[in-house]
Structure formats: C-alpha cells, structure tokens
Amino acid sequence: MGKALRPKSWVLLAYLLPGLLIYSFVVLVPILAALRDSFYSWTGGPKKTYIGIENYKEILQDHVFWHSFLNNVLMTVYGLIGQVGLAFVFALLLMSKMVKLKGLHRTMSYFPSTLAPVIIAFLWMLIYNYNYGLLNAGLTKLGLGSFVQSWLDLTGPIVLLASIPLSWQNIGFFTLLMLAGLSSINKEVLEVAELDGATGIRKAWYIIIPLAKPTLVVASLLCIANNMRGFEHIYALTGGGPGNSSSVMALYAYETSFLRFRYGYGSALAIAIIALTMLMILLSTLALQRRRHQKGDVY
Amino acid sequence: MKKRSFMLGVMVAAASVLSACGNGENEEAAAESGSTITISLMHRYQESNIGKSPEDTAVLDGLQRFRADYPNVEIIEEQLQNEDYSIKAQALAAADDMPDVFIVPGSWMDNFVTNEIVLPLNGEMDKRPEWRDGYRPGTLDAGTREGQVYGIPIAAGPTHLIYYNADMFGSVGYDQFPSTWPELMDAGEKLKEKGINLFSYGDKSKGYAMSSWISALTDRINGPDWTESILNGGGAKFTDDGFVKGISMMSELAKAGYLNKDLNSVDTDTMVNYYFEGRSAAFVSGIWSAMNVVNNAPEEITSATRVAVFPGVEGGLGNPLSSSGGAGVYYSVNSGIEAGEKLDAIMTMLDYMTGADSAKLMAEVGGFPAYDPGEFDKSKLHPVAQAAYEASAAADATKIFDLWFDASIVEVLNTGIQGVMAGSSTPEQLAEETQQAYETLLNKP
Fold first, then answer.
1. Per the count of CB atoms within 10 A, which of A30, A229, B173, B399 is most buried?
2. pTM summary value
3. How close does chain A come to B2, measured CA to CA in Å?
4. Could you report how far apart the first and last alpha carbons of chain A are, in Å?
5. For the sheet containing B73-79, what is the strand order?
6. Cα dist from A136 to A131, B227, B267, B271, B281, whole Å
7. A with B: how many residue pairs have Cβ under 8 Å apart?
C-alpha cells in the first residue's frame, strides 16, 4: 500500500476497536476470570476460599487429566495424518489430470464440513452401532463376521474411532486450503519439472511439497489447535466414555466444573489447557521453523 | 431534518418514560386486586411422557388443575429431558440465575444449601400441616439439612427392581427368579448357550449403574450401616471389601458375557427394547419401567414378565429383600423468593403437583408417590405394575447412592463404573479413585 493511501494509525486503531472490544469481552475477560478463580476452592456460590496454588498441585497428580491430555495429543496425531495428510493427497489428485468431475469431488468432500458436530456424532453412532450399524453389517456381508464389535465400547482404540468422524468432517476444509495453496505454485515450474522427467510421486515430493510448505505449516497448526481444544465431537459421540477412556481435556474441565461442582478446580484445568495448547503450538512452530532454516529456505 | 429527528427522539423517550410509569401503576394495582403473579418453573417432566411415566402424568396433571383453579397465576414453564435438565440447571445455578421453582436431585442439595440457592420451607410447610404430615416416612430426608426442609419430594419408588421373563427362565429350569448368586450365574450360562443375555444393560447416560445396581448390591453386602458411615464421614471407606465385591460381581457378569456387548454405548431405552425384542431374559430398572413394559412390550413379553429383586449375597449384612429407594428428587424454591403472595402461590402449586390428589393419580397409573395416597383404585393396574408396586411397598428402602452422596463422588463413580464394565479398569482401581474423591470432599476447606 502506498504511503499516500495509508490511513493514519489512529484511524486504523479506531476501525479495529469495536472488534477488539467484543473480543476482549468474550475471550480475554473470561480467561482472566478463570485465572482468578483457579486460586480458590469454590463450589459455585457466594463462598470462595483462597487456597493459592493447591489446584495446580492437584492437576500435576490428576491422572485423569493427563490421560485426557494424551488423548488430545493422540487425536492431534491422527488429525495430522487423517486430516492434513489425506487432504494433501486429495488436493494433489484434484490437481492432476487423472480425475474427472473435479467440481463434484470438491463439493462432495466439503459437504461434511457444513454439518453440526452433534449430527456427525449421531451419524457415526449409527455407523458404529453393534446390532444395526452399517460397519458391522458390512463386515458380516463380507464374511468377516468375526470382526464384528460393539465399536464404541472398545476402550483401546476408542480415540482412533472418535478421530475418524472428525477427519471425515474436516478433510473437505483442509482440501480446499491445500488447493488454494497449490494453485499459487508457478505452473512453469511444474512444466519444467515434467520436462525433466519428474512425474507423479517424485514431482510431489521434490517440487510440490517444498513449494507448498507455508500452506502445510498453516494447516498443521490449525489442526493442532483444533484437536487440542476438541470438545463437542467427543461430548456428542462418546461423552468421554467408556469410563474416561476417550476423555479430552476440555470435556474433563467441563465435567469437573458443571457435574462435580468444583468450579475452582475446573478453572485451573481450563488455564492448564490454555498453557498446554500454547506450548504444543510453540513447539510445533519451532520444529517447523527450524527445519526450514536447515534447508536454507526463506519465506 | 435535524430538527425533526430530534423531535422524534424526544417523543420516543417521552413515550417510553410514560409507558414505564403506566406499567408500574398497573403492577401495583394488580397486586392489590390479587391478580397476575408470575412463577417461573423449570422441571424434567414432559407432556410427551404423559401416559408413559407415572411421575410425568401425575405432576403435569396437578399443574393443569392448578392453572384451571388459579387463572390469575401465570406459570412460565420449561420442560426438559432428564439429562438436559441437569446440564442446564447446573449452569444456571453457577450463574445464580435459577427460576423460581426447580428440581433438585438429593446429591446437589448440599451444594445448593451451602451456596444459598434454595429456600428453607419449614415455615411454609408448618402452615399446611395436613399436607406436611401426608408424606411417607423418610421421604423428606434427602432434601433436609440440619432440620430445615429444602425440598418437596415427588416420587419414592424403588430404583432397583428386576423385570424378568418367566418363560425364558423356565426354559432353563428356573420357575422362580434365581435366589442365590451362584444360581443366577448358572442361569446366565444356560441362557448364553441359547444366545440370550441374562440382563440387558444400558449405561450410556451415566447414572443408571449407580441408581439401579450399585446402591442395592452394595447394601446386600455391607448393610445400611456402611452407607450411613460414609455419609457421616464415620470412617467407612470405598476401598472396603464390601464395596469392591459389589462392583466385582457386576464386572463378572460383563466378563462372563451375560450382558449385552454394547452395554456402555446404549441408553436405558435401548436396554428395555432389547428385553422387548427377546434379546435378554431380564433387565434391572426402577419402578418407572413398569408402565413401559405394560404399554410398549409385545403381548407375549408383557404376559411373561414378573418382578424380583437381587438375590441375597452369602455372608452379606443387608436385608436380602431390600431395594434402593425412597425419595431423592425434590422441588425446591429459589432463595430469592420472599414470604408473601408469590410464595403462597408457589406452595399451593407444589401441593397440587405433589400432594394428595397427584399422589392418588400417580399410584393409579402405576407409580409410587412420596405422598401416601392412602386407599386407591388398584383395579386398573396391570399385573406387572401391581407386582412392582407391591415389591416397592415390601422392600426395605436402601438409600440411593446417587441421590445421597455428594455430586463430586457420584460423578467419579458414574464415570468409573463404565471403565470397569468395559474391562479397562478393575473394581479395586475404581474403589481407589472414588475414595480419593471422597477424601478430597472431606478435606475441602
């Protein structure tokens, strides 16, 4: 933007102010309130007892919380593979010459993103259902009756099973993001690469991935942030069950506050979630940045 | 232009000020002539359950009668489903934004009393001795703290009854419900060979295990003294043998494959449907399921259904005929309501909804009201409902854990039992976790 056209900084600030005010009111103020409450033993009424950092000490020993944290991390890993990874492959396929009816594919893959999480959870509950579910019916039809399970009652792979619907929902969004990123790659570069004999997978690996790196980084960070604060999917699909096996941090904080009436401890958990999520994002950013420096790329 | 808009503004302001005054005068006039009191009511009874659930039928009938008799009282009613109710009520309580009259499960009572959310009703009840003295003994207890009554009970039926299919048990050689645990396991094995589950079980919306299974089973083993000791902080522990044994017995049923495989992912409605479909030979539930069996089961299932309770446990300290029961859910009044016309109207409304007439109706449609209905017409009762009623009257009521224990313990148990039934944690681990929550509660500043 030219200097002459640029509005004065106070004008810019004035434009930003309404949004900034609303944001502070609905985001920053509650966070600060939670930070204050996290130092109290409080059961939701007028009585609050200041207990210093006792709540935080309890978090360190609370294995349910750390189990939930690991579930978040696990969901993030599944998300990076199932959402970002697959979306990248889809985007490459949509760019290639093999695929016809690109518009239809784009629309179809984006469709689940328009559904509410509760509806998606309900759909997948029907798919996973033991007696009437699509999945078990399919297995039986294929003669794999021995694999029939009451899927949502399995405590082992429950996080994976809960991550599949999440990937199904978000893959369309990430595909569009990737397509936008890939379309900005200079066509000439790709043509030259093809002339040099780089096709298919080699072209993707040596040419497209390095050039699409900024998009991949943004998508990964989005995916990490989404999965670290994941709540509604798990709440609607499994409720954190069976037992605590699919519990995630946000759900645990919610249950602690609203079902156990421990608002002080619940607030401390909420602050812990913010801290841990920030930490995860920071670490992943550092990791991605460092690799970039090693390669000597500059963006 | 400017002038005109200014005038317009002045007029609008004036109009609003004037109309505000008008409103104020109207309200005063209304109070003088004794008309239009507004009561906000939030509860978990729904129109759609009328005819299915005795509680909903009786309470909503009472409300309708009240509305007809007192047209000057406006009731802003909100009907929610059980689970939705809990979520919304707890959020509103945290925000100190409760309606005038609402439902409080016993396990919340401590918290609501401590935080002054609910109003003590002794004075009001004493004005109405006939109504006050009509309740069955013990039904007010879970809503009473230090002699102050904070809640009006609604129903008092047992939360643990076994509805079983006599034909199916007959086919494996039991013409009565098995009277010992080894026999019960034996019947389970024989039914399993036929591809039938001994019990269908559905604990998706947490709480079922606690109210219909754990309370009665623990009492069979430990007896009521243990429960009292837990409630008074008298030294009993959740890690005591008896409690662990009760949970173990449940997990053994699951491990042996006598329950449906999807026990944590289906709700109680589906559980009952499995019984209707003949997938299971029995299910454990409260008295509220009696009418469901009568109204919705296939004819051959209804006619074969009988009612029993858990068999006694060898060496157990509790009464082998007892069932967990008694009242545990209450109507409470917002602590912000002051004595006067409005509170009188509220008490009258509660009398209509839970008192003598409502209790009679509840009993006639197969429920077990907290208010003693006296003699009522049993002729209309289906044999299954009658059997459930008689079992209720005969059962020595054991405390329902999820209504007496503090919410923080209830939540840990409700969540943990799912893990045990799924086989991912052991009864000992659950006892350990529950004990930890219990100690946290005892040490709370």
1. B399
2. 0.82
3. 26
4. 20
5. B73-79, B37-43, B101-105, B329-333, B152-153
6. 8, 43, 19, 19, 24
7. 106
The length of chain A is 299
Most confident of A111-115, B138-142, B244-248, B395-399: B244-248
Shortest CA distance from B93: residue in chain A: A44
Q: What is the DSSP string of A108-175?
A: HHHGGGGS-HHHHHHHHHHHH-TTT-HHHHHHHHTT-GGG---GGG-SSTHHHHHHHHHHHHHHHHHH
Q: Residue B358 in contact with residue B61, Cβ under 8 Å?
A: yes
The DSSP code for B71 is T
Note the pLDDT tens digit of each residue in A84-100. Answer: 999 999 888 888 777 77
**Is A78 in contact with A62 (CB distance < 8 Å)?**
no
Cβ of B422 within 8 Å of Cβ of A125? The answer is no
| Interface contact A42, partner B, CB < 8 A | no
First to last CA, chain B: 66
The residues on B that touch A, with CB distances below 8 Å, are 86-87, 90-91, 93-94, 96, 108, 111, 114-117, 204-206, 260-266, 407-408, 411-412, 415-425, 444-445
CB contact under 8 A, A241 and B204: yes
CA pair distance A151, B262, nearest whole angstrom: 8
Farthest-apart Cα atoms in chain B, separation: 96
Q: B240 pLDDT band (50/70/90 cuts)?
A: very high
| Cis, peptide link before residue A242, omega less than 30° from 0 | yes
Which residue would you say has higher pLDDT here, B122 or B397?
Answer: B122
User: B73-79 and B37-43: which strand pairing?
Assistant: parallel
Task: Report CB contact under 8 Å: A129, B262.
Answer: yes
Mean pLDDT over residues B317-325, rounded? 82
Please give the Cα distance from A267 to A37 (Å, whole number). 6
- CB of B246 within 8 A of CB of B221? yes
pLDDT at position B274: 95
Residue whose token pair is 């369309």: A172
From the CB of residue A56, how many other CB atoms can be counted at a distance below 10 Å? 15
Tally Cβ neighbours within 10 Å of residue A193: 16
